[in-house]
Amino acid sequence: MNKSQPISSEDLRCSVIPDGRVLEITTTTGCVVACSYCPQDKFAARQRAVSHAKYLRLEDFKKCLARVPAAVDISFSGYSEPWLNADCTEMVEHAHASGHGIRISTSLVRMNGRDLRRLQALDFRVFLVHVLDNGTYMNSSLVGRKYVDLIRQLIDADISSLVFMVLGEIHPDLVEIIPEKALIRSRPLSKGGSVSPKIVAGALTCPDERQHRNVLLPNGDVTFCCMDFERRHVLGNLLRDSYKDLFKAPTFCEIVDRMNGKDGFLVCRLCEFAQPIA
Length: 278
Prior knowledge:
The protein contains seven helices and eleven strands. Helix 3 runs parallel beside helix 4. 22% of the residues lie in helices and 15% in strands. The longest helix has 12 residues, at 145-156. It is an alpha/beta fold.
């Protein structure tokens, strides 16, 4: 698909699952990492209003995954730190055994040495570590002896596709541990307009193709995009709907129409990734 052209509903629907589709997994509602740029309070309030499920249950994850084609990568990231759910490592193992490509995006908070040893047996598309910073953007009090030891173990482990990223300045206790050449320095994202929103009018496109990175929530709901922290576009629920049916439902059709210029609320208009189509 030419990214500068209007989006076709046929391009996005899943009669055939194209390469590059990802389902992000939000394992819990609420996050102690407390990134300043992350609208966690908004997500938690919206999610708790519709479901009492704080954690994604392992059995529910397995039911949802059974509805997702193996061609879709599974990314343990979503709207909160994945390892705040004690079953996260087993979920990763199950998704890997089911034939999905696996992506990890974690701060390592609540992961332990046993988790890491189990993960070493797997391969990953990417294993991205959001390193805790000096307190400017993240809860630096989470950096203790166990966290530092886990970072050391991870560096020594044979993890495929391992990448470290920091927003701002790395925590002082980690400066001498993580090699500078292995560290990506970045900046906070807007998270769908939560920091410095902009408005993109008319037809638009997402050059990062985040419309192909949908998010599973702890109650089985699936939101349109990894930037939709406020659940503004819920495509369906994988505890009752098939993956393909998510992209045939009225909500998805409305999103496509609005990306092509139709009036109506669209979270993409508040996103820094959105680009207008001339």
